[in-house]
Queue: 3 jobs
Job 1
Amino acid sequence: MHPLEACLLLRKIPQIGAIRAQQLVVLCGSPQAVFSTDPTELVAQEMASIEEHGWRCLIWGTPDYPPLLTLCSDVPLLLLARGEWPPNHPRIISVVGTRRPTDYGKRMCQQLIEALAPYNSLLVSGFAYGVDILAQTYAAQLGLATVDCMAQGLDRIYPAKHQKHLAAILAHGGLVSEFLPSDPFERTNFLRRNRIIAGLAHATVVIESGKWGGSMITAGYAHQYNREVFALPGPMDAEKSQGCLHLIEQQLAQVIGRPETIAHSLGWKTTAEKQSIKSPPALREDQKTVYTYVAQHPQVSLDALALGLKQSVSQTAALLMELELLDCVQSLPGKRHRVC
């Protein structure tokens, strides 16, 4: 096939625009190669690269896939993971913010991570400059597990300056990405990465942000996924406070009044506090199971509850209704629940 013929044919194919056509040409090597390349050869190359690096494949619909992500409608079919981290951790927090935090932002970030430490939280971030890498560093220093969501294939580290943090990350957690080594590294990757940051966690925390930017997009995804959002308030005339103040003003985020606000609002309990939880003796066994799970996971959504108990949504909803009538469980906005 002549290169001109291949270009004209690519233009005629529905749903293939200029950007996608260029990506196909880069992937295959030339316009005519797009129509002559065996797709199985490309797949074999990707599989060989994955096996060579020893990355884990998290496939949607399998037990290894992060359960909170399965509740989101736009998640990737495949995630690649490097390192070890528990995808079904019961207390996951995403922390995002400006790339240039103030001294106040840095100080509050450290205090918030320290407040989460007694709950053995899993911290998710984006490996970016500023708040992201600060939160990850503080968490690693406290021995907390961390997951960094990458906007490129796991074969490269960006920003390159953060290579020095890689050993600490892998010692306490790992990296995750939906991008393959052959995928182009584009600005839009960061937007796609942000939905993973929000979807992996029970709640997202924004520590200083302008009114526009990646942190606000991540908070928007978290709100869309019916996850809790927390925002750190700051001076009304400070540029880096505008995003957080907007989230609070629009009632899209809870105010972080003190470092302990997040854990208390989510109803998280330390090991000692959990051991004191007791089920009401008058409940049936199936009711006790639901009651105990809600007590240990306050503000849990109906979908997450059904997923955690491995039973149907309709069955779970019926048991919740029975517990509400018994004044054992209380419904909250956003189809969430907590014990009375």
Job 2
Amino acid sequence: MLESVRNTLRILKSYSREKPVLRVVELSRDLQIEKSSVSRILSTLAAEGFVVKDKASRGYRLGPSSLRLGTAYPFSHEICSLARPVLRELSEKIGETVQLGILDDMKVLFIESFESKHPLRIISSVGSYHPLHCSSPGKVLLAYQDESMVDEVIRKGLKPWTSKTITDGGKFKEEICKVRQQGYAFSAEEMYEGVLSIGVPVRDHMDQVVAAINVVGPIERMMRSGVDRTIRHLMRAAQDISEDLL
């Protein structure tokens, strides 16, 4: 592996919604890369439009070339193109926001979404991440991984996003086992107050779980519309996508 290329990618992966602007000093400290190397890499990235110098903070933020790559990703991912019409129909049928997520670096990465048309709705954005332990697609994806990954998630800590987040390792293992047995997962106000999310797995031709789809919305409205109905529509949609992956 070329070390310079690896370090360049590590720098780009350091950007997030929480950290939209990064400075040479903090990148050097966090990634354990010499400041002179970080500075050279950022200068090269800036010349190619992947980062832009932020005058106010003397740091760097992502540039237009990064955006171009990010927006192209869903169109280059096979499962996105196959799932898109199914997800659109599901969102219109249920009336809530629908998302498609995959496992990436011990988190859920959303690669496609269709928002509800209700004025009060859950805003979803492609490219955002959710934790595994308190999101319904996260639980689904985790349920079909090796048990060692469940242990790793617990070891890293089950951060309490709300008072209803499962933070006990033993109870969390029981929850994952339940998801595996019933084939779907709930996140009832475990990540956001007043929000219910229901997720199911999507399988490939080898019967391996490669993604998860979920419906998310205000808990009261989703309960009124019928949880069992939502689960049936979700499973039908997941089956349709899985069949297209054969």
Job 3
Amino acid sequence: MSFLALHGFTQRGSMWGEVAALVPGEWAAPDLPGHGGRPPCSWDEAVAWVGGLLGGAARPLCLAGYSMGGRLALAAALAHPGRVDRLALVSASAGIADPVERERRRAEDAALAGHIEDIGVGAFVDEWLARPLFAGLEVRSPGWRMADRSARMGSTPAGLAGALRLLGQGAQPYLGDRLGGLPMPVLLVAGTGDPRYAALAGEMAAGIPHATVVLVPGAGHAVGTRTTVA
């Protein structure tokens, strides 16, 4: 099995290293547009870019995505269903259905993008990781958290701001009414400590012909960690 894995906002493709070490196969985990040295691009361009990667990948192929990467993976699988044998979405959504709410989110993303440009990557990454959404990361070792922060620091303010403006949930078309067009088995993963995305996983599964939902006990948005220590 080969894997194409897409990371979340502010991360790098290297975030999939721990997963790749646990799951045998041929892994490709590129930096998303706006991350690392890759310039930002529009939503449609990003989906086409993922489609090109799918076309060059070995088969059988599992497409996986986390958060922002999960939304892109979903869109690419809908655009190229014949190129994806399995789809795995972690802490992901199909976008925002209500146009008014989507426009509100677009304005929020634009404001946050401007904030990134004002304060720089280092200060923003610290603010971003301090959000309750990522509280589970505090249980990781200091060395792991230092390496994680260092990887996120490899992007530029312009890149992250562009990714937020162009690939954020406000910029994404709503995909929830197209989920029936996914013929492949789809795994939807979320943490019970992230109730919003746990609920979204169930809602998405209801529209997908071959869906399995896995809720990880105690895990937050970063599903590899727990919001509480046992």
